[in-house]
TrEMBL record:
Family in the record: Belongs to the TonB-dependent receptor family.
Organism of this sequence: Sphingobacterium humi
Topological category with respect to the lipid bilayer: Multi-pass membrane protein
Pfam families assigned: CarbopepD_reg_2, Plug
UniProt main location, coarse: membrane
Protein name: SusC/RagA family TonB-linked outer membrane protein
Length: 1069
């Protein structure tokens, strides 16, 4: 009889060949039943022989082969890994023990007890506690973490067309707020804030890609293996002055010691602009225009006859310009919708109904992403190579509006000797962005300015002037000019690793170099078109061009050593010490010229030399740091960690350049105590706490401690521009680091065989040395620097819960998260001024408070306003806003603009989002898969920008269709005030215009199908999957339908966000 021994959780058991699954053993042991025999299984084969290679096959609980399982001989350096078929071969002898390690599974041991062949199926039990999490300068098991760390895996970034990984991370990590600010190609800006506000100044999130500082803008999302987010000071303190805004550690995909694997993933789809304002019908628009003019001046411009012509009707009346009865425009000129004004020869007047949005913009636009990757290797070398392509067309119908990007990456690992390895990374990014010369946002705004009754072309085919003064929007898009931006980034890094230099001592040296190069140019042409008077009009009479070239270099060197020691199986110690150096240089040069001799060839040599401008600049910075960490683990029950970082920066004066940033954290794994009941209900419970300090280098200028001199040639004298030298800001040699101190307590628990996990954190964050302005007399005549005089406190909590059951045939998962935080500016010596709208800084209040008037609807008559007896505005009358006189002084005012006397202003909250949440769920069944992700904010207040949402703020700010419900004597219950030209008296900041910007968004939906493996056996393919998906599919919100609830406060008409619908294909060879 051939026997072997399985060691599970350190408990040896002799097992005979007559049991079906080893994975059944832990479950039975939980029940107090111990089987005596394990039957051999035909799916695996292990040859046992003296001094021979042991061969076998490793599968999961469902019998599927496991790729990448590490197999090693216990107590030696001999190891290998399984291939895609789960097979391995390793030299070993009878009496030795094999260890099997795999991420997401419990480590298992196998004692070789026979020299004869047996067939065996190894069955791993999933254990998320064994997952390895990337932390600063190392890794840790999830179960041993004492800091606040969240992770997101590669699945979040797959099968999506996106320009940045941040798009997939939005709402997916507790405590991490990611908001979009714009949707234009090449300008999809994302603001990232980890655990709320840390400062009133810039606070960037540190992004480390494979251990080197990087940027998401240069990273292909398909290359990401995982991202760890370090949220508290204990987790991030080892990065010191760079970590005030939190740290994101990105690990890219690596090679495998197996035969070559080639994979392709591609998707093609369309984008559709979301939540854009729509235009009224031209006759409604003209009527609104007339009413706004009438209410402000007492006259009208168009009238009922022309409204009818816009509707295409004939009228039996005589128009004021002498047109006979029964007429419409086409009766007087062969061009549809046009007439010739008899009082102004050659003037063609359009009476049409034109959707200027449809003229200028497209509803549907293509987007595509393609990725090819090759990975493989052997015992000495492994590699991962990838190429990615991303292309997105924007919404402009005629003008330049697109982004195109190429990514290349090579990750190479070489085992130079038994103890020495070298890991190298090379990456390249080439990105191109094209926009109109005046900016794509401005072109979109023109589509809302141009009159809806005007055709874009005259009957003779030439462009028709819009509003009588502007060229056609088509002409602006096509012919005015474009702006081109191109970015190249090349980065290389190498990590020399020495393992067991001494027993337990490992050394890493990482060197990297990044070269960035960008260039851009813009050309603005002179346009000629026929204006309202039938005469040529010159638009941009002075054509121009601008060029720039930027180059930046970033060099870093990091060296650190780790030492791990285990004493008597109960005490585990870890030490880390290291050094880092960073050097940065940015060079830029820009030139421009006007009055070029032609619109067709743009060169700096062809313009007016007197109009030429040129500028250049060089910015340099360097930083150095020393760091260390100490870990202690007693019986996996009591965990302790301490980090230190001593940082210096060239941005500060020498006497203030260096500062120490410490942290402490501890954890107690209660479930490992003897008194804790051992059952399947609760598998693991851990409480943890931390304290630490971080620095904010982003708040520092490059040369704040030096009195900088600038030159400008803007002094007119003797018929010439003369150069002057000036100092714009006083030096600040006493400025030092902003120090953010964070305390955190947390709970982690796993239940029901680790299928359910719950984590919760509560934190307090204080910035005690915040840089802020000081109020002084303006007579000083020069700008003042910021001083370390402010204090900001942020308090918050976060929680996530998830259930995951991967048992066949039906696998499913669901997880939810929610987080919230509030802040308070506890100390501020600047000006505490209260005013209308958003006020950023007031001592004793949260950041970005909203102030406005309380209202009581609209006045229904002029007499009602007269009887009210409160002075609002000389223009106020029926149909206008009724503001409440809270201080009783019979006038609506802001008092003296202080907290003590704000007049009639009230604080209506702040713009900070509250209760950010996400919900992720999905399932897999017999090749089919479905997943969806919902994301949102449960509480947020938004105050709109009056300039951009008020109709007829000027003569070219046309109303939206959504504003048709406006006040008239016949429509007294309308929502919108009466039309009024060039006045904001009904649109002042007030509770009437305060928007509830809470929302729930269907962020992603995907349905896929994987072809059966039985079909793949007949081909050269290993896996084929097809899918359809949608991103930002829909949202539930109460804000106006023409704005997105995620827009920044005070946002006006801007490039819209977009929805994406696509189909894709994944193939693995």
């Amino acid at each position: 009889m051939r026997n072997y021994v399985l060691l599970s959780k350190g408990i040896p058991r002799k097992i005979h060949r007559n049991l079906i699954l080893l994975g059944f053993i832990p479950t039975v042991m939980m029940m107090g039943i111990l089987p005596e025999k394990v039957e051999a299984h035909p799916l695996a084969k292990i040859d046992f022989a003296m001094q021979a290679a042991i061969r076998g096959r490793v599968t999961d609980a469902n019998g599927l082969p496991l790729d990448g399982v590490t197999v090693e001989v216990k107590g030696s350096q001999v190891k290998t890994s399984t291939n895609k078929r789960g097979e391995f071969s390793i030299p070993a002898r009878i009496g030795q023990t094999l260890l099997f390690h795999h991420v997401g599974h419990m480590t298992q041991e196998l004692l070789i007890s026979s020299d004869q062949d047996v067939q065996l199926k190894l069955d791993f039990q999933t254990n998320p506690l064994e997952d390895v999490v990337v932390v600063g300068y190392g890794t840790s098991k999830k179960v041993n973490l004492t800091g606040a760390v969240s992770t997101i895996s590669q699945e979040a970034f797959e099968n999506k067309s996106m320009s940045t990984p941040l798009a997939a991370m939005q709402g997916a990590i507790p405590g991490v707020g990611i908001t979009r600010t714009n949707g234009k190609p090449g300008g999809e800006n994302y603001a990232v804030q980890i655990r709320g506000a840390s400062s009133i100044n810039n606070v960037g999130v540190l992004v480390m890609i494979d251990g080197v500082r990087g940027s998401f803008s240069e990273l292909n999302p398909n290359d990401i293996e995982s991202i760890s987010v370090l949220k508290d000071a204990a987790a991030a303190a080892i990065y010191g002055s760079n970590a005030a805004g939190g740290v994101m550690l990105v690990t890219t995909k690596k090679g495998k010691k197996d035969k070559v694997e080639v994979s392709y993933s591609g998707n093609y789809g369309v984008t559709q602009a979301s939540r854009m304002p729509t235009r009224m019908k031209s006759w409604d628009e003209a009527k609104y225009y007339d009413m706004s003019v009438f209410n402000s001046t007492g006259s009208i411009y168009w009238g009922e006859i022309k409204y009818a012509w816009m509707r295409g009707e004939k009228l039996d009346v005589i128009d004021t310009i002498g047109i006979r009865t029964g007429a419409r425009p086409s009766d007087f000129y062969p061009g549809e919708h046009f007439i010739i004004d008899p009082t102004r020869p050659n003037v063609w007047v359009s009476y049409s109904d034109v959707d200027q949005i449809a003229v200028a913009l497209k509803k549907v636009n293509p987007i595509q992403t393609h990725n090819v990757a090759v990975r493989g290797g052997n015992d000495k070398t492994s590699y991962y190579m990838s190429a990615g392509y991303y292309n997105r067309k924007g919404i402009l119908r005629y003008g330049p509006d697109s982004e195109e990007r190429y990514n290349l990456r090579l990750n190479l690992s070489n085992q130079l000797s038994k103890k020495v390895s070298l890991n190298s990374t090379l990456s390249y990014t080439d990105a191109d962005v094209y926009q109109p010369v005046r900016g794509v946002d401005e072109v979109i705004l023109l589509a809302y300015k141009f009159w809806g009754w005007e055709e874009p072309y005259r009957p003779d085919g030439s462009y028709h002037a819009s509003n009588g003064i502007w060229p056609s929007i088509i002409e602006v898009e096509k012919d005015e000019g474009k702006s081109t931006r191109r970015l190249y980034t090349f980065e290389g890094s190498s990590n020399l690793k020495i393992k067991d230099l001494l027993p337990g001592l490992n050394v890493d040296v990482i060197g990297s170099k990044r070269l960035g190069f960008s260039k851009g140019n813009s050309f603005q042409k002179t346009l000629t078109y026929i204006g309202a008077e039938g005469k040529p009009i010159i638009f941009n009479p002075t054509n121009s061009m601008n060029k720039y070239v930027n180059a930046n270099t970033f060099t870093s060197l990091q060296a650190f050593a780790t030492y791990n020691l285990k004493v008597q199986q109960d005490h585990e110690f870890g030490l880390l010490g290291g050094y880092s150096f960073e050097d940065f240089r940015y060079d830029n040069i820009a030139a421009g010229i006007k009055s070029l001799v032609t619109n067709e060839m743009f060169s700096l040599n062809w313009g007016d030399p007197q109009s030429a401008t040129v500028s250049d600049g060089i910015t340099t910075a360097a930083a150095m740091g020393f760091f260390g960490r100490f870990n202690y683990n007693y019986k996996d029950k009591y965990l302790f960690e301490s980090n230190l970082r001593y940082d210096g920066s060239s941005r500060l004066a020498p006497e203030n350049r260096w500062q120490l940033f410490p942290s402490l954290s501890a954890g107690w794994v209660i479930s490992n105590e003897d008194f804790f009941p051992k059952n399947n209900l609760v598998n693991n419970v851990k409480v943890r706490g931390s304290w630490g300090q971080l620095g904010n280098s982003d708040a520092l200028g490059y040369y704040d401690y030096i009195g900088m001199l600038y030159a400008a040639n803007n002094i007119p004298f003797n018929n010439a521009r003369n150069t002057r030298i000036y100092q714009s800001q006083l030096a600040s040699p006493n400025k030092t680091w902003e120090t953010i101190e964070t305390a955190n307590i947390g709970l982690d628990t796993w239940m029901f065989d680790n299928r359910l996990n719950l984590s919760a954190d509560f934190y307090v964050k204080k910035n005690k040395d915040m840089l802020a302005n000081m109020e002084v007399q303006s007579i000083i005549g020069v700008g003042l620097p910021t001083f370390n005089i402010g204090e900001l406190k942020t308090t918050g909590w976060e929680m996530n819960i998830g259930w995951k059951d991967m048992s066949k045939p039906f696998k499913y998962w669901v997880s939810a998260l929610i987080s919230d935080n509030t802040n308070k500016l506890t100390k501020y010596k600047g000006r505490n001024i209260v005013g209308l709208g958003r006020v950023g800084l007031i001592e004793g209040l949260p950041l970005n408070t909203i102030w406005g008037y309380k209202t009581d609807g609209l006045f229904q008559s002029d007499q009602e306003y007269k009887d009210y007896g409160v002075v609002i505005n000389p223009k106020t009358g029926q149909g206008d806003m009724k503001y409440l006189d809270l201080d009783g002084d019979k006038k609506i005012s802001m008092g003296d603009g202080t907290l003590a006397n704000p007049g009639d202003l009230v604080r209506m909250g702040d713009t900070n989002p509250r209760y950010m949440f996400g919900l992720n769920l999905g399932f897999e069944y017999k090749g089919f898969s479905f997943s969806t992700f919902l994301q949102g904010v449960a509480q947020r207040k938004m105050l709109l920008n009056t300039v951009d949402f008020q109709p007829m703020f000027s003569e070219v700010r046309m109303p939206y269709k959504e504003q048709l419900d406006y006040w008239t004597p016949e429509n007294p219950n309308a929502f919108w005030p009466r039309p009024y030209l060039n006045s904001t008296h009904s649109y002042l900041a007030s509770d009437y215009w305060l928007q509830n910007a809470a929302y729930l968004r269907v962020k992603n939906v995907e349905l896929g199908y994987t072809l059966p493996s039985s079909l793949m056996k007949k081909t050269a393919l290993n896996k084929v999957r097809v899918f359809v998906s949608g991103q930002d599919v829909f949202e539930f919100t109460k804000v106006f339908s023409f704005i997105d609830p995620e827009f920044p406060d005070n946002a006006g008409v801007t490039y819209p966000f977009f929805r994406t619908f696509q189909a894709g294909l994944n193939i693995t060879f």
